[in-house]
Amino acid sequence: MASLKEYRDERLKKLEALKKLGVNPYPAHTEVAQYSGHNHLAEDIKKNYQANAGKETVVAGRIVSLRPHGKIAFITVREQWETVQLFLQEDKLKGANYQNSELNFENLNLLDLGDIIEAKGILAKSRTDEITIEVSQLRLLTKSLRPMPSLQDGFTNKEERLRRRYIDINVNQDVYERFIRRSKFWQAHRDFLNKHGFIEINTPVLEHTTGGADANPFVTHMDALGQDFYLRISQELPLKRLLGGGYNKVYDIGPRFRNENYSDEHLPEHTAMEWYWAYADAEDGKKFIVDLFRYVYQQVYGTLQFKIRGFEVDLAKDWYEIDYEQVIREQYDLDVFTCTLDKVKAKLAEHKLEVEKSENVARGIDKLWKKYRATVAGPAFLVNMPVHLKPLAKIDSKNPKIVEHFHPVMAGSELGNGYSELNDPIDQLNRFMEQQNMRDAGDKEAQMLDIDYVEMLEYGMPPACGYGHSERNFWFFEDVTAREGVPFPQLRTEIDEVTKAIYPQIFSRKHPKSK
Questions:
Q1: pLDDT of 118-165, one tens digit each?
Q2: CA dihedral 35, 41, 42, 45 (to 10 degrees)
Q3: Do 183 and 133 reside in the same domain of the chain?
Q4: DSSP string computed for 358-409
Q5: In CATH, what number is assigned to the domain containing residue 387?
Q6: DSSP for residue 147
Q7: What pTM value is reported for the model?
Q8: Of 135, 269, 322, 325, whose CB has the highest number of CB atoms within 10 Å?
Q9: What CATH number did the domain enclosing 49 receive?
């Protein structure tokens, strides 16, 4: 079997032959975009065949099959994973205008699988009743220099697929369709929120002080101001500043960054949504989230019943509540309000969970909860967490030890975080200071003291409910890992030996990315 370099060298020869003919192998203009006839998308050509049979049409796509038979040839092009057959005849494909990137029948030998072409002709059916375009004009739009691998060729290595996702999308239709669903996932959120009177306002990615979550931030430097900035870990505090500014319903969908390890459920960079609703509380928020989940997943998947990680989840069912204090007491015989760090460490060891050097009561109990959470099918809401675990949430009016909050829980995982927002500036400052003390003691995920946010609260922010979740929800319902759930996950930079051999003019020198 020929090597990649040999295949590429052969295609380079064809590229030169095309140029000698006067063909531009990479033209800017296409007739597909401007064509005045009926729809040119491959799917629409097939769907609307009866209405357009016998009419001229145009289609563009990647060659996936090329079958010459003497004075005729068949080409199959694929466009957005829909295919159309082209029928070419020698006597009807001549007199090409090479300056327009057109090709004659005799030039078909300069085409390869993977090339992107445009074909114009009459819409008809073949003798085998296959929808076909009888081509009168053939143009080359893109000359492919590398053959597209296939699953049959062994393009199954997960690391390789993630590194060259553009190939993965081309050869794995399920991956291609996954990212269409990902787009629909966020569009459905926007549609639902907009329909309920929310407005989308994008908030800064670079922040002087970052907060709104327990996470370790990325640090960068802005030369123009001569100061370090953090990449946001949450949209929460800027959005609540907008509530203080007079907006009643706001949301933001965009990237956030957490300088933490990769896992099957977490990525350092990911897309997230947060909304904030003035004059609502956690009870209002829970009802709203049930409706949001049902709307989004019905729109994306057309069903509310799912099998996820061994669990059967029915979003149409009534959601029940899990009391945090009660489940920790029943499962681990610990009082979340009074237990000591030594008791928490003992329980962690007993259940074979990691005990860190900088362990504290809050983090330790959270690990125990997560062990139990892995058994929960849901859909449910986790409620009644202690005040010290939720530094931005309002204290429950009936029990000063807990806050008004809710976490959607299903199939062993928490899928969001919502609560009645704390708007008491003095209480907020005290809780910020507690978090800062934890941070100074070595807890890198504890929240920073944001004095500007406290000042905003002193001017007055209405009572409100806020909620956020990330695209982890999408990965979860797709039942894929985090890296599989995004188009281009971050990976350690590597350049393979084949690429180094193909570009010796670059890699014969010392190159920082070739190590």
A1: 999 999 999 899 999 999 999 999 999 999 887 556 678 888 899 999
A2: -70
A3: no
A4: T--HHHHHHHHHHHHHTT--S-EEEE--BGGG-TTBPBPSS-TTBBSEEEEE
A5: 3.30.930.10
A6: P
A7: 0.90
A8: 135
A9: 2.40.50.140
